[in-house]
Specification:
Layout: H1 3-14, H2 17-35, H3 40-53, H4 57-82, H5 93-102, H6 106-140, H7 144-155, H8 157-161, H9 166-180, E1 183-184, E2 191-192, H10 206-224, H11 242-264, H12 269-284, H13 297-312, H14 314-320, H15 326-337, H16 346-349, H17 351-372, H18 376-380, H19 387-406, H20 409-427, H21 433-456, H22 462-465, H23 467-492, H24 499-510
Antiparallel strand pairs: 1-2
Protein backbone atom coordinates (compact mmCIF):
# COMPACT_ATOMS: atom_id res chain seq x y z
CA UNK A 1 0.00 0.00 0.00
CA UNK A 2 1.46 3.37 -1.07
CA UNK A 3 1.72 6.44 1.14
CA UNK A 4 -1.29 8.12 -0.50
CA UNK A 5 -3.40 5.01 0.00
CA UNK A 6 -2.32 4.86 3.63
CA UNK A 7 -3.19 8.52 4.14
CA UNK A 8 -6.64 7.99 2.59
CA UNK A 9 -7.09 5.03 4.92
CA UNK A 10 -6.12 7.33 7.80
CA UNK A 11 -8.78 9.84 6.75
CA UNK A 12 -11.37 7.06 6.69
CA UNK A 13 -10.51 6.53 10.37
CA UNK A 14 -10.22 10.20 11.40
CA UNK A 15 -13.44 11.30 9.66
CA UNK A 16 -15.72 8.87 11.46
CA UNK A 17 -18.30 10.76 13.56
CA UNK A 18 -16.80 9.46 16.79
CA UNK A 19 -13.24 10.53 15.98
CA UNK A 20 -14.37 13.86 14.56
CA UNK A 21 -16.01 14.55 17.91
CA UNK A 22 -12.82 13.65 19.77
CA UNK A 23 -10.77 15.91 17.46
CA UNK A 24 -13.12 18.80 18.21
CA UNK A 25 -13.13 18.14 21.96
CA UNK A 26 -9.32 17.86 22.05
CA UNK A 27 -8.52 21.05 20.11
CA UNK A 28 -11.23 23.06 21.91
CA UNK A 29 -9.97 21.98 25.34
CA UNK A 30 -6.39 22.63 24.26
CA UNK A 31 -7.23 26.12 22.96
CA UNK A 32 -8.96 27.13 26.18
CA UNK A 33 -6.17 25.70 28.34
CA UNK A 34 -3.51 27.35 26.19
CA UNK A 35 -5.05 30.77 26.85
CA UNK A 36 -4.92 30.26 30.63
CA UNK A 37 -1.43 30.41 32.20
CA UNK A 38 -0.75 27.80 34.85
CA UNK A 39 -2.04 24.62 33.23
CA UNK A 40 -0.45 24.08 29.84
CA UNK A 41 -0.69 20.99 27.62
CA UNK A 42 1.22 18.73 30.04
CA UNK A 43 -1.24 19.25 32.89
CA UNK A 44 -4.20 19.06 30.50
CA UNK A 45 -3.13 15.74 29.00
CA UNK A 46 -2.34 14.34 32.43
CA UNK A 47 -5.84 15.27 33.61
CA UNK A 48 -7.48 13.72 30.56
CA UNK A 49 -5.62 10.39 30.65
CA UNK A 50 -8.18 8.88 33.07
CA UNK A 51 -10.90 9.80 30.56
CA UNK A 52 -8.91 8.09 27.81
CA UNK A 53 -8.67 4.80 29.74
CA UNK A 54 -12.07 3.56 28.69
CA UNK A 55 -11.70 4.69 25.07
CA UNK A 56 -10.51 2.89 21.97
CA UNK A 57 -6.72 3.53 21.73
CA UNK A 58 -6.78 5.32 18.37
CA UNK A 59 -9.60 7.65 19.44
CA UNK A 60 -7.85 8.33 22.76
CA UNK A 61 -4.56 9.34 21.14
CA UNK A 62 -6.40 11.46 18.55
CA UNK A 63 -8.07 13.38 21.39
CA UNK A 64 -4.89 13.77 23.48
CA UNK A 65 -2.88 14.88 20.45
CA UNK A 66 -5.58 17.48 19.75
CA UNK A 67 -5.15 18.85 23.27
CA UNK A 68 -1.41 19.22 22.66
CA UNK A 69 -1.38 21.17 19.42
CA UNK A 70 -4.59 22.98 20.39
CA UNK A 71 -2.84 24.38 23.48
CA UNK A 72 0.13 25.53 21.39
CA UNK A 73 -2.33 27.16 18.98
CA UNK A 74 -4.34 28.87 21.72
CA UNK A 75 -1.40 30.12 23.77
CA UNK A 76 -0.85 32.99 21.35
CA UNK A 77 -4.08 34.73 22.39
CA UNK A 78 -2.99 35.76 25.89
CA UNK A 79 0.53 36.50 24.60
CA UNK A 80 -0.83 38.98 22.07
CA UNK A 81 -3.61 40.57 24.10
CA UNK A 82 -2.12 40.68 27.61
CA UNK A 83 1.61 40.00 27.16
CA UNK A 84 0.96 36.96 29.40
CA UNK A 85 2.18 33.84 27.53
CA UNK A 86 -0.17 30.97 28.30
CA UNK A 87 2.29 28.38 26.97
CA UNK A 88 6.10 28.50 26.94
CA UNK A 89 6.12 28.03 23.17
CA UNK A 90 4.27 31.33 22.64
CA UNK A 91 6.63 33.61 24.58
CA UNK A 92 8.32 34.77 21.35
CA UNK A 93 4.90 35.61 19.88
CA UNK A 94 4.42 38.32 22.49
CA UNK A 95 7.53 40.24 21.35
CA UNK A 96 5.70 41.68 18.34
CA UNK A 97 2.14 40.52 18.95
CA UNK A 98 1.63 42.64 22.05
CA UNK A 99 3.06 45.84 20.47
CA UNK A 100 0.67 45.27 17.54
CA UNK A 101 -2.21 45.03 20.03
CA UNK A 102 -1.12 48.26 21.72
CA UNK A 103 -1.28 49.98 18.32
CA UNK A 104 -4.86 48.83 17.75
CA UNK A 105 -3.94 45.89 15.50
CA UNK A 106 -4.92 43.06 17.79
CA UNK A 107 -7.30 41.65 15.17
CA UNK A 108 -4.56 41.48 12.56
CA UNK A 109 -2.07 39.98 15.04
CA UNK A 110 -4.50 37.24 16.06
CA UNK A 111 -5.39 36.54 12.42
CA UNK A 112 -1.69 36.27 11.50
CA UNK A 113 -1.15 33.93 14.44
CA UNK A 114 -4.10 31.75 13.41
CA UNK A 115 -3.07 31.53 9.75
CA UNK A 116 0.62 30.93 10.52
CA UNK A 117 -0.28 28.28 13.09
CA UNK A 118 -2.45 26.52 10.52
CA UNK A 119 0.31 26.59 7.89
CA UNK A 120 2.95 25.45 10.39
CA UNK A 121 0.79 22.61 11.64
CA UNK A 122 -0.06 21.50 8.11
CA UNK A 123 3.57 21.51 6.96
CA UNK A 124 4.48 19.62 10.11
CA UNK A 125 1.91 16.94 9.33
CA UNK A 126 3.24 16.64 5.77
CA UNK A 127 6.73 16.12 7.19
CA UNK A 128 5.46 13.61 9.74
CA UNK A 129 3.71 11.67 6.99
CA UNK A 130 6.46 11.78 4.37
CA UNK A 131 9.80 11.47 6.14
CA UNK A 132 9.12 10.23 9.67
CA UNK A 133 11.22 7.03 9.49
CA UNK A 134 14.32 8.65 7.97
CA UNK A 135 14.11 11.67 10.27
CA UNK A 136 13.79 9.42 13.26
CA UNK A 137 17.05 7.64 12.41
CA UNK A 138 18.76 11.04 12.00
CA UNK A 139 17.46 12.20 15.39
CA UNK A 140 19.01 9.12 17.02
CA UNK A 141 22.45 10.25 15.80
CA UNK A 142 22.20 13.34 18.03
CA UNK A 143 24.14 12.66 21.21
CA UNK A 144 24.93 14.97 24.15
CA UNK A 145 27.74 16.65 22.18
CA UNK A 146 25.37 17.64 19.38
CA UNK A 147 22.68 18.74 21.84
CA UNK A 148 25.14 20.99 23.65
CA UNK A 149 26.11 22.63 20.36
CA UNK A 150 22.44 23.03 19.46
CA UNK A 151 21.77 24.75 22.78
CA UNK A 152 24.75 27.08 22.26
CA UNK A 153 23.36 27.97 18.86
CA UNK A 154 20.04 28.70 20.51
CA UNK A 155 21.67 31.00 23.05
CA UNK A 156 23.39 33.03 20.33
CA UNK A 157 19.88 34.07 19.34
CA UNK A 158 20.02 36.48 22.30
CA UNK A 159 22.18 38.77 20.19
CA UNK A 160 19.44 39.46 17.68
CA UNK A 161 16.74 39.41 20.34
CA UNK A 162 18.73 41.91 22.37
CA UNK A 163 18.69 44.51 19.61
CA UNK A 164 21.74 46.68 19.03
CA UNK A 165 23.08 46.41 22.58
CA UNK A 166 25.08 43.21 22.63
CA UNK A 167 26.20 43.53 26.25
CA UNK A 168 22.70 43.98 27.68
CA UNK A 169 21.42 41.01 25.72
CA UNK A 170 24.22 38.79 26.99
CA UNK A 171 23.75 40.01 30.59
CA UNK A 172 20.07 39.11 30.41
CA UNK A 173 20.94 35.67 28.99
CA UNK A 174 23.45 35.00 31.77
CA UNK A 175 20.84 35.91 34.39
CA UNK A 176 18.44 33.45 32.75
CA UNK A 177 21.05 30.66 32.82
CA UNK A 178 21.80 31.40 36.49
CA UNK A 179 18.12 31.13 37.36
CA UNK A 180 18.00 27.80 35.48
CA UNK A 181 20.79 26.45 37.71
CA UNK A 182 18.98 27.22 40.98
CA UNK A 183 18.17 24.11 43.04
CA UNK A 184 19.68 20.69 43.73
CA UNK A 185 22.15 19.48 41.12
CA UNK A 186 20.68 16.28 39.71
CA UNK A 187 24.10 14.63 39.29
CA UNK A 188 26.01 15.70 42.41
CA UNK A 189 23.10 16.49 44.78
CA UNK A 190 24.83 19.80 45.61
CA UNK A 191 22.48 22.65 46.51
CA UNK A 192 23.11 25.71 44.30
CA UNK A 193 21.98 29.35 44.57
CA UNK A 194 19.14 28.60 47.00
CA UNK A 195 20.21 30.95 49.87
CA UNK A 196 19.27 28.12 52.28
CA UNK A 197 15.62 28.37 51.24
CA UNK A 198 14.07 24.88 50.97
CA UNK A 199 11.44 26.24 48.59
CA UNK A 200 14.16 26.73 45.96
CA UNK A 201 15.57 23.21 46.17
CA UNK A 202 13.49 22.10 43.17
CA UNK A 203 14.39 25.18 41.14
CA UNK A 204 12.31 28.04 39.79
CA UNK A 205 9.30 27.26 37.62
CA UNK A 206 9.35 28.68 34.11
CA UNK A 207 5.80 30.01 34.44
CA UNK A 208 6.73 32.15 37.46
CA UNK A 209 9.53 33.86 35.56
CA UNK A 210 7.53 34.27 32.33
CA UNK A 211 4.46 35.77 34.00
CA UNK A 212 6.59 37.98 36.25
CA UNK A 213 8.93 39.34 33.58
CA UNK A 214 6.19 39.84 30.99
CA UNK A 215 2.67 40.14 32.43
CA UNK A 216 3.33 41.57 35.90
CA UNK A 217 6.04 43.87 34.58
CA UNK A 218 3.55 45.17 32.02
CA UNK A 219 1.10 45.90 34.85
CA UNK A 220 3.79 47.91 36.64
CA UNK A 221 4.57 49.81 33.44
CA UNK A 222 0.88 50.62 32.97
CA UNK A 223 0.59 51.86 36.55
CA UNK A 224 3.72 53.96 36.10
CA UNK A 225 2.26 55.78 33.13
CA UNK A 226 0.36 58.96 33.77
CA UNK A 227 -3.14 59.54 32.56
CA UNK A 228 -4.69 56.75 30.55
CA UNK A 229 -1.40 54.95 30.27
CA UNK A 230 -2.51 52.21 27.92
CA UNK A 231 -3.67 54.36 24.98
CA UNK A 232 -4.57 51.29 23.02
CA UNK A 233 -6.93 52.76 20.48
CA UNK A 234 -9.66 50.96 18.61
CA UNK A 235 -9.27 47.38 17.50
CA UNK A 236 -8.96 47.12 13.74
CA UNK A 237 -10.38 44.47 11.46
CA UNK A 238 -8.78 41.06 11.34
CA UNK A 239 -8.77 41.18 7.53
CA UNK A 240 -5.28 41.00 6.02
CA UNK A 241 -4.45 42.76 2.77
CA UNK A 242 -2.70 41.05 -0.13
CA UNK A 243 0.50 42.89 0.71
CA UNK A 244 0.41 41.77 4.31
CA UNK A 245 -0.15 38.16 3.27
CA UNK A 246 2.79 38.35 0.87
CA UNK A 247 5.00 39.76 3.63
CA UNK A 248 4.28 36.98 6.11
CA UNK A 249 4.32 34.09 3.60
CA UNK A 250 8.13 33.59 3.32
CA UNK A 251 8.80 33.73 7.10
CA UNK A 252 5.83 31.44 7.72
CA UNK A 253 7.11 28.81 5.30
CA UNK A 254 10.74 29.03 6.45
CA UNK A 255 9.80 28.88 10.12
CA UNK A 256 7.47 25.94 9.54
CA UNK A 257 10.33 23.90 8.08
CA UNK A 258 12.77 25.00 10.81
CA UNK A 259 10.19 24.30 13.50
CA UNK A 260 9.43 20.82 12.24
CA UNK A 261 13.09 19.76 12.12
CA UNK A 262 13.66 21.27 15.58
CA UNK A 263 10.66 19.40 16.96
CA UNK A 264 12.03 16.12 15.64
CA UNK A 265 15.05 16.44 17.97
CA UNK A 266 14.18 15.02 21.39
CA UNK A 267 14.47 17.71 24.05
CA UNK A 268 14.22 20.74 21.76
CA UNK A 269 10.47 21.24 21.39
CA UNK A 270 8.19 24.12 20.43
CA UNK A 271 9.78 26.71 22.73
CA UNK A 272 13.28 26.37 21.28
CA UNK A 273 11.82 26.27 17.76
CA UNK A 274 9.92 29.52 18.26
CA UNK A 275 13.00 31.39 19.53
CA UNK A 276 15.23 30.02 16.76
CA UNK A 277 12.74 31.00 14.06
CA UNK A 278 12.25 34.47 15.53
CA UNK A 279 16.00 35.03 15.61
CA UNK A 280 16.42 33.69 12.06
CA UNK A 281 13.73 35.95 10.62
CA UNK A 282 15.09 39.00 12.41
CA UNK A 283 18.47 38.38 10.80
CA UNK A 284 17.00 37.71 7.34
CA UNK A 285 14.41 40.51 7.23
CA UNK A 286 15.31 43.84 5.67
CA UNK A 287 13.26 45.51 8.38
CA UNK A 288 14.81 43.41 11.16
CA UNK A 289 15.38 46.54 13.27
CA UNK A 290 11.60 46.86 13.68
CA UNK A 291 11.24 43.43 15.28
CA UNK A 292 9.97 43.92 18.81
CA UNK A 293 7.99 46.99 17.75
CA UNK A 294 5.00 45.26 16.18
CA UNK A 295 6.36 43.66 13.00
CA UNK A 296 3.85 41.09 11.62
CA UNK A 297 6.74 38.80 10.63
CA UNK A 298 7.66 38.56 14.31
CA UNK A 299 4.22 37.05 14.97
CA UNK A 300 4.09 34.75 11.94
CA UNK A 301 7.54 33.16 12.44
CA UNK A 302 7.25 31.83 16.01
CA UNK A 303 3.61 30.78 15.56
CA UNK A 304 4.43 28.74 12.46
CA UNK A 305 7.50 27.24 14.14
CA UNK A 306 5.90 26.21 17.42
CA UNK A 307 2.98 24.47 15.74
CA UNK A 308 5.25 22.67 13.28
CA UNK A 309 7.52 21.64 16.17
CA UNK A 310 4.56 20.30 18.14
CA UNK A 311 3.75 17.98 15.24
CA UNK A 312 7.44 17.18 14.65
CA UNK A 313 7.80 15.94 18.23
CA UNK A 314 5.51 13.04 17.27
CA UNK A 315 8.21 11.67 14.94
CA UNK A 316 10.52 10.28 17.65
CA UNK A 317 7.49 9.37 19.78
CA UNK A 318 5.70 7.27 17.14
CA UNK A 319 8.69 5.78 15.33
CA UNK A 320 11.25 5.35 18.13
CA UNK A 321 9.25 5.41 21.34
CA UNK A 322 11.39 8.38 22.45
CA UNK A 323 9.50 11.43 23.76
CA UNK A 324 10.56 14.64 22.02
CA UNK A 325 9.26 16.90 24.80
CA UNK A 326 7.73 16.80 28.25
CA UNK A 327 4.26 16.70 26.76
CA UNK A 328 5.04 13.79 24.44
CA UNK A 329 6.56 11.98 27.43
CA UNK A 330 3.10 12.05 29.00
CA UNK A 331 1.63 10.89 25.69
CA UNK A 332 4.13 8.02 25.71
CA UNK A 333 2.83 6.99 29.11
CA UNK A 334 -0.72 7.17 27.80
CA UNK A 335 0.17 4.94 24.85
CA UNK A 336 1.73 2.34 27.13
CA UNK A 337 -1.28 2.41 29.45
CA UNK A 338 -3.54 1.84 26.44
CA UNK A 339 -1.49 -1.20 25.46
CA UNK A 340 0.30 0.36 22.49
CA UNK A 341 4.09 0.06 22.19
CA UNK A 342 5.45 2.94 20.05
CA UNK A 343 8.65 2.28 18.15
CA UNK A 344 10.05 1.20 14.79
CA UNK A 345 7.40 -1.54 14.44
CA UNK A 346 4.47 0.78 15.07
CA UNK A 347 3.89 1.49 11.37
CA UNK A 348 3.70 -2.27 10.83
CA UNK A 349 1.88 -3.38 13.97
CA UNK A 350 -0.51 -0.40 14.38
CA UNK A 351 -0.87 1.28 10.97
CA UNK A 352 -4.46 2.29 11.73
CA UNK A 353 -3.36 4.28 14.76
CA UNK A 354 -0.38 5.96 13.05
CA UNK A 355 -2.21 7.04 9.91
CA UNK A 356 -5.40 7.83 11.84
CA UNK A 357 -3.48 10.22 14.09
CA UNK A 358 -1.69 11.79 11.10
CA UNK A 359 -4.98 12.37 9.27
CA UNK A 360 -6.61 13.71 12.44
CA UNK A 361 -3.89 16.38 12.63
CA UNK A 362 -4.91 17.65 9.18
CA UNK A 363 -8.50 17.77 10.36
CA UNK A 364 -7.55 19.30 13.72
CA UNK A 365 -5.55 22.13 12.12
CA UNK A 366 -8.55 23.01 9.95
CA UNK A 367 -10.92 22.85 12.93
CA UNK A 368 -8.61 25.15 14.90
CA UNK A 369 -8.61 27.70 12.10
CA UNK A 370 -12.40 27.60 11.71
CA UNK A 371 -12.86 27.72 15.47
CA UNK A 372 -10.49 30.60 16.20
CA UNK A 373 -10.96 33.05 13.32
CA UNK A 374 -14.61 33.90 14.16
CA UNK A 375 -13.66 34.38 17.83
CA UNK A 376 -10.89 36.90 17.13
CA UNK A 377 -13.19 39.98 17.42
CA UNK A 378 -14.41 38.64 20.76
CA UNK A 379 -10.88 38.07 22.03
CA UNK A 380 -9.74 41.48 20.79
CA UNK A 381 -12.35 43.29 22.90
CA UNK A 382 -10.15 42.56 25.88
CA UNK A 383 -8.06 45.55 24.77
CA UNK A 384 -10.99 47.92 25.21
CA UNK A 385 -11.28 47.01 28.89
CA UNK A 386 -10.61 50.08 31.09
CA UNK A 387 -7.25 50.07 32.82
CA UNK A 388 -8.92 50.12 36.23
CA UNK A 389 -10.51 46.77 35.38
CA UNK A 390 -7.79 45.25 33.20
CA UNK A 391 -4.92 45.68 35.68
CA UNK A 392 -6.61 43.76 38.53
CA UNK A 393 -7.70 41.07 36.06
CA UNK A 394 -4.14 40.53 34.82
CA UNK A 395 -2.83 40.41 38.40
CA UNK A 396 -5.48 37.83 39.35
CA UNK A 397 -4.64 35.95 36.16
CA UNK A 398 -0.99 35.74 37.20
CA UNK A 399 -1.65 34.93 40.86
CA UNK A 400 -4.10 32.13 40.11
CA UNK A 401 -1.81 30.62 37.46
CA UNK A 402 1.25 30.62 39.74
CA UNK A 403 -0.54 29.56 42.92
CA UNK A 404 -2.12 26.66 41.06
CA UNK A 405 1.33 25.19 40.38
CA UNK A 406 2.16 24.16 43.93
CA UNK A 407 -0.22 26.14 46.18
CA UNK A 408 2.80 27.95 47.62
CA UNK A 409 2.76 31.51 48.92
CA UNK A 410 6.53 31.57 48.39
CA UNK A 411 5.94 31.23 44.63
CA UNK A 412 3.78 34.36 44.77
CA UNK A 413 6.71 36.18 46.32
CA UNK A 414 8.92 34.98 43.48
CA UNK A 415 6.31 36.20 41.01
CA UNK A 416 6.42 39.67 42.57
CA UNK A 417 10.23 39.64 42.56
CA UNK A 418 10.46 38.73 38.89
CA UNK A 419 7.79 41.31 38.12
CA UNK A 420 10.02 43.96 39.70
CA UNK A 421 13.04 42.63 37.78
CA UNK A 422 11.06 42.77 34.54
CA UNK A 423 9.98 46.33 35.28
CA UNK A 424 13.56 47.44 35.95
CA UNK A 425 14.71 45.71 32.77
CA UNK A 426 12.07 47.60 30.79
CA UNK A 427 13.10 50.91 32.34
CA UNK A 428 16.78 50.34 31.54
CA UNK A 429 16.34 48.83 28.06
CA UNK A 430 17.40 45.30 28.96
CA UNK A 431 15.59 42.81 26.68
CA UNK A 432 13.51 40.18 28.47
CA UNK A 433 13.71 37.61 25.67
CA UNK A 434 17.35 36.56 26.30
CA UNK A 435 16.55 35.99 29.98
CA UNK A 436 13.70 33.65 29.13
CA UNK A 437 15.77 31.82 26.50
CA UNK A 438 18.66 31.41 28.94
CA UNK A 439 16.25 29.98 31.51
CA UNK A 440 14.88 27.47 29.00
CA UNK A 441 18.22 26.33 27.60
CA UNK A 442 20.46 26.61 30.66
CA UNK A 443 19.57 23.29 32.26
CA UNK A 444 19.53 21.41 28.97
CA UNK A 445 22.92 22.80 28.01
CA UNK A 446 24.50 21.92 31.36
CA UNK A 447 23.18 18.35 31.27
CA UNK A 448 24.36 17.77 27.69
CA UNK A 449 27.79 19.25 28.40
CA UNK A 450 28.32 17.01 31.42
CA UNK A 451 27.25 13.87 29.59
CA UNK A 452 29.51 14.68 26.66
CA UNK A 453 32.49 15.22 28.97
CA UNK A 454 31.78 11.99 30.86
CA UNK A 455 31.69 10.01 27.62
CA UNK A 456 34.89 11.62 26.32
CA UNK A 457 36.77 11.28 29.60
CA UNK A 458 36.89 15.02 30.20
CA UNK A 459 38.20 15.94 26.73
CA UNK A 460 36.76 19.34 25.75
CA UNK A 461 37.96 18.82 22.18
CA UNK A 462 35.02 16.45 21.63
CA UNK A 463 32.81 19.45 20.90
CA UNK A 464 34.87 20.43 17.84
CA UNK A 465 35.91 17.01 16.60
CA UNK A 466 32.38 15.70 16.06
CA UNK A 467 31.20 16.96 12.63
CA UNK A 468 27.62 17.91 13.54
CA UNK A 469 28.68 19.57 16.79
CA UNK A 470 31.50 21.47 15.10
CA UNK A 471 29.16 22.67 12.36
CA UNK A 472 26.56 23.91 14.84
CA UNK A 473 29.19 25.73 16.92
CA UNK A 474 30.59 27.34 13.75
CA UNK A 475 27.13 28.61 12.85
CA UNK A 476 26.75 29.95 16.41
CA UNK A 477 30.02 31.90 16.13
CA UNK A 478 29.10 33.25 12.71
CA UNK A 479 25.72 34.39 14.02
CA UNK A 480 27.52 36.54 16.60
CA UNK A 481 29.71 38.37 14.09
CA UNK A 482 27.11 40.90 12.80
CA UNK A 483 26.33 42.04 16.35
CA UNK A 484 30.03 42.32 17.22
CA UNK A 485 30.66 44.37 14.07
CA UNK A 486 27.74 46.68 14.91
CA UNK A 487 29.09 47.13 18.45
CA UNK A 488 32.61 47.96 17.21
CA UNK A 489 31.26 50.45 14.65
CA UNK A 490 29.21 52.07 17.36
CA UNK A 491 32.31 52.56 19.53
CA UNK A 492 34.41 53.98 16.71
CA UNK A 493 31.70 56.32 15.48
CA UNK A 494 32.27 59.79 17.01
CA UNK A 495 29.37 61.00 19.08
CA UNK A 496 27.70 64.40 18.52
CA UNK A 497 29.76 66.94 20.47
CA UNK A 498 28.68 70.50 19.78
CA UNK A 499 25.27 69.86 18.19
CA UNK A 500 24.02 67.89 21.21
CA UNK A 501 22.94 70.89 23.33
CA UNK A 502 21.17 72.43 20.35
CA UNK A 503 19.35 69.19 19.69
CA UNK A 504 18.27 68.99 23.33
CA UNK A 505 17.08 72.59 23.23
CA UNK A 506 15.12 71.90 20.02
CA UNK A 507 13.52 68.86 21.63
CA UNK A 508 12.48 70.96 24.64
CA UNK A 509 10.97 73.59 22.36
CA UNK A 510 8.91 70.94 20.54
CA UNK A 511 7.64 69.38 23.76
CA UNK A 512 4.15 70.45 24.82
CA UNK A 513 4.01 72.98 27.64
CA UNK A 514 2.56 71.42 30.79
CA UNK A 515 -0.69 72.90 31.93
CA UNK A 516 -1.02 74.09 35.43
Amino acid sequence: MGMLDQLLHGFSIALTPQNLLFVFVGVLAGTIIGILPGLGPMSAIALMIPIAYGMEPTSAIIMLAGVYYGAIFGGSTSSILLNAPGVAGTVATSFDGYPMALRGKAGKALAIAAISSFVGGTIGVVGLMAIAPSLASFAVSFGPTEYFALMVLGLTAVVSLGGRNLVKGLVAAVIGVMVALVGIDSQTAIVRFTFDLPELYEGVEFLIVALGVFALAEVLVMLNRRGRGGARGGVTSLRLSGGELRRITPPTLRSSVLGFFTGVLPGAGATVASFLSYSMEKKLARDGDTFGQGNPKGVAAPEAANNAAAVGSFVPLMTLGVPGSGTTAILLGALLVLGVQPGPMMLTDNPDMFWGVVASMYVGSLVLLILNLPLIPVFAKVLNTPKAVLVPLVVVFCVVGVYGLSFSVFDLGLLAAFGAIGFLMRRNDFPAAPLILGLILGGLMETSMRRALQISGGEWSVFVTEPISAGLLAVAVLSLLPAVVRALRGRRRPGPAAPAPAAEEEARDRAPTPRG
